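Consider this:
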Amino acid sequence: MISFIKGKVAQKEEGILVIENNGIGYEVQVSDHTMNSIAYMNEEVKLLTYLQVREDGIALFGFVSKEEKDMFMKLIQVGGIGPKMAIGILSGISLSELSTAIFRQDIKMLCTIKGLGKKTAERLLVELKDKVEPVQESVESNVNMSYVEEATEALMSLGVGKNEAYRLAKEHAENSSSVEEIITKALRGMN
């Protein structure tokens, strides 16, 4: 098993980093969170890894933090969630939001994640209910999550993708007094 990889970022694509180590480029699938934490090309990075070996190929998945890898490992234990879907889930929602959604059994929040259907989200909640600790809420306590959910649905009805709609709504929810204000700020933020 490959526990981690350390090297320079040789290439960045959507969901994939190529890490050069001793003249070999390792293709590592990563979440948006990990991708966004890598600032620039040729940056020296250390990613924790998970190696998937199947009949049809080998895949390497990378994580910027132990917490992200731990959540990934929990997610792939859920029936119907493979490594690629787990990376998609980690890309669609922050770790603290995911932990909170699982702890609170918030099916609506999980269903905002692209590629995660209601049945799989329900299975995830059932199977991880006792395995995920609640996360201390800090700044997020100022945010009215029902406003975020309503704003997300409204943005989706305007043609914005699920993940982007949720990200925009969450980003503009703080210091907003209404759903309309969140939507207005989110639409301005898209330009």
Confidence is low (pLDDT under 50) at residues 137-141. The domain at 141-190 is CATH 1.10.8 (Helicase, Ruva Protein; domain 3).
